[in-house]
Model the fold of this input.
Amino acid sequence: MSLRVSSLLLALTLAGCSSTPTQPTKPEQPIVNQADDTVAEARFSQNLNELLSQVSQTQEIPLQSLESGFLDAKTIPSIRKLVLPPSGTFKKNWLAYRKRFIEPVRLKAGKAFWEENRAFLSQVEQDSGVPAEIIVAIIGIETIYGRQTGNFRVKDVLATLAFSYPETPNKPAREQLFKDQLKELILLCWTEAGGKLPAKNNTQGVNNARFSACLNQNSSYAGAIGLPQFMPSSIRSFAVDGDGDGKIDLKQSPKDAIASVGNFMKKHGWQSGMPISFPVQPNGIEAAKELADGQPQLKHTVQELIEKGILAKQQGDLQSGGVEPSSKAFIVDLPYPDKDDSDQVQYFVGLNNFLTIVQYNRSYFYAQSVAEFAEALGYKNQSVVPAENTVKTMGTKSANEKTKSKKTSAKKKPKVN
Done:
């Protein structure tokens, strides 16, 4: 779902979960009693009409156009089941999750997609700093390059989750999230249909058929659209016209999808030429366990993790690359049951670029899968820009050494903060 979401969506979506499976178990009991269906539908229609009136007033879009576009909107019971959290007995399984996405069919499709779009991927990589392998991995994990983009009407999905979310502890926050996304969808579709915002109480230049078609386009069960699975707010904020045809089409244009993913990652802090994560050293697992809190926040320095035995100086780029001792990181915990159904955890140290992937989909499982999918495509998880020596030897540098250090510093990639 890795979920392409705004900061609001990220703040609310799956809050506190270090890894979230994409297919939660179904509840044993029906969510709504049959006797309540009529009342629930009436309340759904009333709430939807109130939102449409609000959008009409704030954006000066004719209410008649909005009501016409949502005349056949409906709740989808299966959507309400799909967004429910897993049952209490469910065990997160990193190994099963990884196996689902990093597998021969998806990797073969990824190599073919890369070959078909090699020149444009190189251009986007140069412009955004995001490696082609990362972009290809994200689109592959999201939709297998457009093969699985969802088969629900996006207006039905967002309206269902905005006004008929199942009874969960975070229901108010989730409903508000999807109300906001429904508003974003309306504004997105209005502008795509030729309208301006605010509309100034007229439909001149607006193609009502195109407006309705946009509202009716397919999405995932959470309302994500197209090859990269962007939410409406992310389409408005981060999607770009990659093929230069004057419109953004994330469903049919690979170039638009590629450019949009690159732009999203760049805008969310991707650091060009820097690694993503490092595996925890075997003798540092206990220390990593103590620091793992499930919160995707850069809070520990690399030097601190080296001192605790979680990382080793000779590991990856820690000795000669661009990851400096003062670089910030956090502990990534990936739980799974072993063959005896005992709880196990694989630990990684996530750097800034790992956190950027988490902004795309708030799941450690997802982010590490993207990293390993990219590595399977040839991505080198290391910095490509050598760092100057950050460990000063005893004594005073010579004048020549100081001059050389200044020249190197001017070219060096900024450290991870």
User: Anything to note?
Assistant: The chain has two domains: 7-29+36-103+147-267, 277-386.
